Amino acid sequence: MDAKRAVEIAQAESEATRELPLPEGARGERHGRSVVQSVRLPAEEFAEIERIAAQAGVPVGALIRGWVLAGLAAERGTSLRDAIEHLAEEAQRLRRLAAVSEVA
Fold this sequence. Notes:
4 helices; mainly alpha
């Protein structure tokens, strides 16, 4: 698939999922106005993102959006309680990934 087509698909997915709730663990909230930003990723990493999204049962765009919003929230500074919750969420994610690795 060429880059232009990949961007078109990502934009369509973003528009189609913009009213869906954010993935579990994502911080922040949706606002009325959204901006679409194209990002280049190596094909191997994008394939891994697709695999993770399929495994979680969420659209790729929603997964990436959740990751970006979580990263943004972390950059804004967090309280000790938020940091502990984030670590707990990351531990849960790592356990899930480890379980998948053991099956594969």
